[in-house]
TrEMBL record:
Xref: InterPro entries: Cadherin, Cadherin-like_dom, Cadherin-like_sf
Any Gene Ontology CC annotation: catenin complex
Domain Cadherin per the UniProt entry, residue ranges: 18-129, 145-249
Keyword field: Calcium, Membrane, Repeat
Keyword Repeat: yes
Pfam family, one: Cadherin
Protein localization: Membrane
BP GO annotations: adherens junction organization; calcium-dependent cell-cell adhesion via plasma membrane cell adhesion molecules; cell migration; cell morphogenesis; cell-cell adhesion mediated by cadherin; cell-cell junction assembly; homophilic cell adhesion via plasma membrane adhesion molecules
Gene from which the chain derives: Cdhr5
GO molecular function: beta-catenin binding; cadherin binding; calcium ion binding
The keyword Calcium is assigned to this record: yes
PROSITE patterns reported in the protein's UniProt record: CADHERIN_2
Protein name: CDHR5 protein
Length: 290
């Protein structure tokens, strides 16, 4: 008597990943759709030879949508949205492998792999002159104000010029790289009156100025490692007469009179003389004709 016995495969094995934890360093400027983790690294096996279904989730708030898998049966992870280091510098993904498409199926087995993604900042931005203010909520653009200062006519300043809103200074906004910045004057330096220290940004005089004409310098900040990464700023230097004395009021106390019920912008009159508007005047011994 020949007896044929068929062994039925019981679904009693869970899928398994060869690597349960994977770490990848991803450059900030990685192109969208680029593969991040290869399929063969994340493919799970199942001793029951079941079809395996994959699902990818993120555990870090605000990092959803950047990474995805190719398909429900293809666990290759690719970049789905452009990266910005200021918005996301790391995330942790969970890849689930199931032997049933329906989680309610009984029995249903699941394996989990953890994928740690570290975003590496790259040199994408030109220097920012300081101080600067961000453009609304966009922290990729920082707007600086022009610099300004003064020099005295026919007088040679021996120390670096004092400027507002601060000294000439720029930073590399790719702060984890923090490339060195060098400075130069690229325009407006008539007769080469001024000199700019390439390393410190200090602005000094090389000769005296004999005319009251102002200077509008164009200053450039350049990254040492890449001359194409540069920014420019303006520095206005006004030439003035030397001031040795502060202004002073002609009187220590001024007394005036107003009347109840006067309209807005009405004159205040001198106390005791309701026909003469009150005048508050000052003098400056440096400018007797002003």
């Amino acid at each position: 008597l020949e007896i044929i016995v068929t062994i039925l495969n019981l679904d009693d094995n869970a899928p398994t990943f060869e690597q349960q934890s994977v770490t990848r360093v991803v450059q900030e400027d990685t192109e969208v759709n680029a593969a991040i983790v290869a399929r063969e690294v994340l493919t799970a096996s199942d001793a029951d030879l079941d079809t395996i279904y994959y699902e990818l989730t993120t555990t870090v708030q605000g990092t959803d949508g950047y990474f995805a898998i190719k398909g429900v049966n293809n666990p290759e992870i690719y970049l789905q949205k452009a990266l910005d280091y200021d918005k996301i510098n790391s995330t942790t993904l969970l890849l689930y492998a199931r032997d049933s498409l329906e989680t309610s199926h009984d029995p249903s087995h699941t394996a989990t792999a953890t994928i740690n993604i570290i975003i590496q900042q790259v040199d994408t931005r030109a220097p920012w002159f300081q101080p600067c203010a961000f453009l609304h909520s966009d922290r990729s653009v920082c707007i600086s104000s022009p610099y300004s200062g003064t020099v005295n006519i026919s007088e040679m300043a021996t120390e670096p010029l004092i400027l507002t809103p601060g000294p000439i200074y720029a930073i590399d906004p790719d702060y984890t790289i923090n490339e060195k910045i060098v400075y130069s004057i690229v325009g407006g330096n008539t007769n080469q009156v001024f000199s700019l220290d390439a390393n410190t940004g200090n602005l000094t005089m090389t000769k005296i100025v004999t005319s009251p004409d102002s200077f509008l310098l164009q200053v450039m900040a350049t990254q040492v490692n890449n001359a194409r990464k540069y920014s420019t700023a303006t520095v206005e230097i006004k030439v003035i007469n030397k001031s040795n004395y502060p202004p002073r009021f002609e009187k220590d106390i001024y007394n005036g009179t107003v009347f109840a019920g006067l309209a807005l912008r009405s004159f205040v009159f001198q106390a005791g003389d309701p026909s003469t508007p009150l005048m508050i005047t000052a003098l400056d011994d440096d400018f007797p004709d002003v």
